[in-house]
């Protein structure tokens, strides 16, 4: 697989711990580092092209809805937020849904601590594709309890709905993950999905650190078994 210069640059940023391109930094993010940095939670947006991953991200970051569709390669964002009274930083990697970029997804997924797996309720193909995204994430992270939300976007287009609510709920129940419907246009549940995912990531980190200290012996983490074919 060959990567072009901008893909290599993006991968380098991820491996360096999510250093941001100044264009994408939230205001104030370039200021001097405080003595102790707030906890960083790394979220990855995944899903087919055109489902609204960028629109959700931009609505969360800047409170604006982008009408135009400009396919993403990969963009990263960072913002300080208050999560249940604690200041934390969220790092969002908005990935490409378009198939042209499928080959580099593994590298992006590796850096994620939690995933928002987005489809459009108006497009059954994008719902089908969530199955593949889920499998790829589980394969790369090797952890079937990785923090993960299934997100049905474009809820404002209810009259064009083509993915039945029951099917969405059933899939989420089978995966044992939450299902939430959002609208990047009206902002419905936009904060909710990012904050709920951060709560899952935070809870995972605290379980992991207790496990490291011997309190919980990997109770919640269920590693996937490696099948020898
Ligand atoms: N009505 C409505 N339109 C939306 C919503 N979310 C996104 N869109 C529109 O859908 C189109 C695609 O949105 P994007 O956010 O660019 O899609 P994406 O998932 O980032 O696509 P890729 O970058 O190619 O993976 C744009 O024209 C958006 O304005 C939504 O909640 N409601
Ligand atoms: Mg995009």
- Percent in helix: 25-40%
| Terminus-to-terminus distance | 25 Å
Q: Over the alpha carbons, how many angstroms does the gyration radius reach?
A: 17 Å
- Which H/E pattern describes the elements? HEHEEHEHEHEH
- Strands of the largest sheet, in order across it? 2-3-1-4-5-6
pLDDT averaged over residues = 86
- Uncertain segments are 15-29
**Strand portion:** 15-25%
Keywords: Cell membrane, GTP-binding, Hydrolase, Lipoprotein, Membrane, Methylation, Nucleotide-binding, Prenylation
Pfam families: Ras
GO biological process, one term: signal transduction
Protein name: small monomeric GTPase
Layout of helices and strands:
Layout lengths: L4 H11 L23 E9 L5 H10 L11 E10 L2 E10 L9 H6 L3 E7 L3 H18 L6 E6 L11 H11 L3 E3 L8 H23 L17
Parallel strand pairs: 1-3, 1-4, 4-5, 5-6
Antiparallel strand pairs: 2-3
The chain binds guanosine-5'-triphosphate and magnesium ion (MG).
């Amino acid at each position: 697989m060959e990567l072009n210069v901008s893909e290599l640059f993006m991968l380098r940023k991820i491996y360096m711990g999510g250093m941001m391109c100044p264009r994408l930094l939230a205001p104030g993010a370039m200021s001097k580092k405080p003595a102790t940095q707030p906890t960083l939670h790394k979220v990855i947006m995944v899903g087919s092209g055109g489902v609204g991953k960028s629109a959700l991200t931009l609505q969360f970051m800047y409170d604006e809805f982008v009408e135009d569709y400009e396919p993403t390669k990969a963009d990263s964002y960072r913002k300080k937020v208050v999560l249940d009274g604690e200041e934390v930083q969220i790092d969002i990697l908005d990935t490409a849904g378009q198939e042209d970029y499928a080959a580099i997804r593994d590298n992006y997924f590796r850096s994620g601590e939690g995933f928002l797996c987005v489809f459009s309720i108006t497009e059954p193909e994008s719902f089908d594709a969530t199955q593949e995204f889920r499998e790829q994430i589980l394969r790369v992270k090797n952890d079937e309890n990785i923090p993960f939300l299934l997100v049905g976007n474009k809820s404002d287009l209810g009259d064009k709905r083509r993915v039945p609510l029951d099917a969405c709920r059933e899939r989420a129940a089978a995966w044992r993950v939450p299902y939430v419907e959002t609208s990047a246009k009206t902002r419905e549940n936009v904060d909710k999905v990012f904050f709920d995912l951060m709560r899952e990531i935070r809870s995972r980190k605290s379980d992991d650190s207790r496990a490291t200290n011997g309190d919980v012996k990997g109770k919640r983490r269920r590693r996937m078994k490696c099948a020898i074919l």
